[in-house]
Design the sequence.
């Protein structure tokens, strides 16, 4: 299951940025199915993305707490940026 944060982001982006598409899917009772299908794709994408970023930016070889916090924040920010772009691209279709 895709992280709830990104599932909600997907639905909110669809609703706010593409209201016609949201309304059309809702009117023909396909919204839940559409979200389910995209959620499966985004779950796979998120897993591959985290793996790719971890390879590209290996963790620092230190046990310093603040260094690790900054590293983890950097990774999460990168993941979030890529996920927002992917969600927008999916909805644009």
Sequence:
């Amino acid at each position: 299951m895709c992280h709830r944060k990104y599932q909600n982001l997907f639905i909110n982006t669809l609703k706010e940025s593409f209201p016609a598409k949201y309304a059309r899917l809702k009117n023909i009772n396909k919204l839940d199915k559409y979200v389910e299908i995209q959620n499966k794709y985004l779950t796979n994408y998120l897993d591959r993305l985290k793996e790719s970023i971890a390879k590209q930016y290996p963790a620092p070889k230190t046990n310093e707490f603040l260094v690790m916090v900054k590293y983890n924040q950097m990774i999460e920010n990168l993941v979030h940026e890529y996920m927002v772009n992917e969600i927008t691209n999916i909805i644009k279709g």
